[in-house]
């Protein structure tokens, strides 16, 4: 089965991002294909490399990055949602005249068309949100 | 993109929240507008507090929010014409079709269930 995943809640704030990660990981381990994981609304905060959780807690952002590396996952942050929430990649930081960027490895910033494309290309689009 | 050509899926955008107070309604509308470029079979459904998104005469001046409700009137220009409203949600909030900014089809719970069953992709916001 080819899945698309939509994550629409932030890490540590809401179970949705943990559930999305667990679902994605389980699907990949079972041999399913993940067409793309798209992060929208506060979900974009799953992709900031400045996240520093307490040491005895799970590291949600690193967990996504590691999964992306292992399975060559496409992790996409919505650009409009990301910019509203202070998330910039190197190019956008330069373009917007900002002095830093904060995207974690394995993530990329792109448009909402990537979400619609995931809906078209996947056999199932699974939404993790409130 | 070639692979997608000719693939037309039924997309339902399910709007469940009040227009202000959270960003879900506005960001849902943004997906609909971008998604319009993909020539898919698009429907919008409004249930629960989502029916307030279509309320006429919204005045957000004092809340210092952008009133984005006129955008729903522009949807027709994007060939997004199938708008459905849940009857019970409308009635529970003392609203009628006359109170809404755009023409809609009012569905009862069974019809709404049927609409959802017909979809390929349901995006719930």
TrEMBL record, chain A:
InterPro entries: DsrEFH-like (IPR027396), Sulphur_relay_DsrE/F-like (IPR003787), Sulphur_relay_TusD/DsrE (IPR017463). GO terms for molecular function: sulfur carrier activity; sulfurtransferase activity. It is found in: Cytoplasm. Keywords: Cytoplasm, Transferase. One of its GO terms (biological process) is tRNA wobble position uridine thiolation. It holds the Pfam family DsrE. One of its GO terms (cellular component) is sulfurtransferase complex. Belongs to the DsrE/TusD family. This is Intracellular sulfur oxidation protein DsrE. It comes from Thioploca ingrica.
Automatic annotation (TrEMBL), chain B:
It comes from the Bacteria. Pfam families: DsrE (PF02635). Coiled coil: none annotated. InterPro entries: DsrEFH-like (IPR027396), Sulphur_relay_DsrE/F-like (IPR003787), Sulphur_relay_TusC/DsrF (IPR017462). SUPFAM superfamilies: DsrEFH-like. Transmembrane segments: none annotated. Belongs to the DsrF/TusC family. This is Sulfur relay protein TusC/DsrF. It comes from Thioploca ingrica.
